[in-house]
Amino acid sequence: MTTTAETAVPTAHLSPILKQATPVVVDHAQGSWIRGTDGNDYLDFTTGIGVTSTGHCHPRVVAAAQAQCAKVIHAQYTTVMHQPLLELTEKLGRVLPPGLDSVFYANSGSEAVEASIRLARMATGRPNIIVFQGGFHGRTVAAASLTTAGTKFSAGFSPLMSGVHMAPFPYAFRYGWDTDTAVDFALRELDYLLTSRVAPNDTAAFLIEPVLGDGGYLPTPPRFLAGLRERATRHGIVFIVDEVQAGFGRTGKFWGHQHADGVVPDIIITAKGLASGFPISAIAAPTELMSKAWPGSQGGTYGGNAVAAAAAVETIAVIEDEGLVENARVRGEQMLAGLREIAPRFPRIGDVRGIGLMAGIEFVTTDASGATVPDSAAAIAVQQATTGQGLLTLTCGPGGNVVRLIPALVVTEDEIRLGLHRFAAALDVALGGA
Ligand code: PMP
């Protein structure tokens, strides 16, 4: 075949809906750092949205994945079992709360969320799921139906999955209350929902994040989680905790819900940090509950991929050997304290909050009536200004008015200090002290 200069060259381009939060194109990355194709080094406080838990390309995770690639890349585990999945299940058994001894694997957070909902409905024979305002659980149609972290996640493709009901989240800052008042209110409203509209014996599950992620980086108060656990037990409702973003050490405990003493969920959903960047997710539940799913109702071709599973096994080993859960706690305290020192200079910063290596900075302004309202323009301006300072950040929150910082679990004291310095410089550029 001959080609001439006149022959049309077929071209393709990325979907125009994929808006990039930063202009950076990564060339290579290591630890907390990304080298862009522009030749610049960026301190990465986005970690692929909380995924690269052991830092970019941790040498042990790289070696484990490379070795597994040379042995077997894929053997669908309902057809032919493979060693990495057996090892991963054994390792997860050591970090999961006692009793959650059965694990099912998928590829993404959304798929695992769907698996948990299917399981809860099959186990209870009940239709309704209660979610909490500002929760994010994914973008597949069912997961989007469970998501209330912003209308953009579900508008335009109705009808959504039925049987989903939203209860308030104790968002103390938004209401202008202290945490206890917000928790009392949210629990009262939940009880009201359970008596006025959604009968407990028609309710399959409560679904909540230990820290609202895309909904604004709001730690769920321990007393609220305890209140949900108590009501779930009382009514035979399955208590599902979505640890996709907050799990795997990120909050300074292995699981985010462990900040609520004595609270053990019926189902834990995990993904993101599980394999340092390889796509794999899981749900864990007591065997008795897990066995209520009908054979064939759960699963998918790529779920529990061998290379991803090998990377997950090594991720857990690195987290344990390098003390990364404790590092997340200590470096998280440093990050939050630093942000709280910076914040008073900027009146548009209404709230600084977080836990472990999840920090949210909420931007607000006042409207004509003098009420405090979300200021997404300020948050976006600051997030974009951080790139210019060599720091990568993201926004979140229903109004997009929260900047979130999600460093890797391996982040060092110096890197947090540098990140805070660059963040303060970006605030000056974007807001000029306003
Ligand atoms: N649950 C939570 C708490 C999440 O943060 C996310 C992703 N941001 C999901 C579920 C969905 O995960 P995925 O994008 O892998 O489908």
List keywords for this structure.
5-stranded antiparallel beta sheet; Aspartate Aminotransferase, domain 1; Aspartate Aminotransferase, domain 2; binds 4'-deoxy-4'-aminopyridoxal-5'-phosphate; 434 residues; 2 domains; alpha/beta; 7-stranded mixed beta sheet
What would you say this structure looks like, in words?
This protein is α/β, with parallel strands linked by helices and 434 residues long. It has two domains: 129 residues, Aspartate Aminotransferase, domain 1 (Alpha-Beta Complex), CATH 3.90.1150; 263 residues, Aspartate Aminotransferase, domain 2, CATH 3.40.640. The protein has 13 helices and 18 strands. The strands form four sheets. It has a seven-stranded mixed sheet, with helices on both faces. Strands 13, 14, 15, 17 and 18 form a five-stranded antiparallel sheet that branches. A hairpin with a 5-residue loop joins strand 8 and strand 9. The model has no long low-confidence stretch (mean pLDDT 96). The structure holds 4'-deoxy-4'-aminopyridoxal-5'-phosphate. The site of 4'-deoxy-4'-aminopyridoxal-5'-phosphate (PMP) has 15 residues, from helix 4. The site of 4'-deoxy-4'-aminopyridoxal-5'-phosphate has 15 residues, from helix 4.
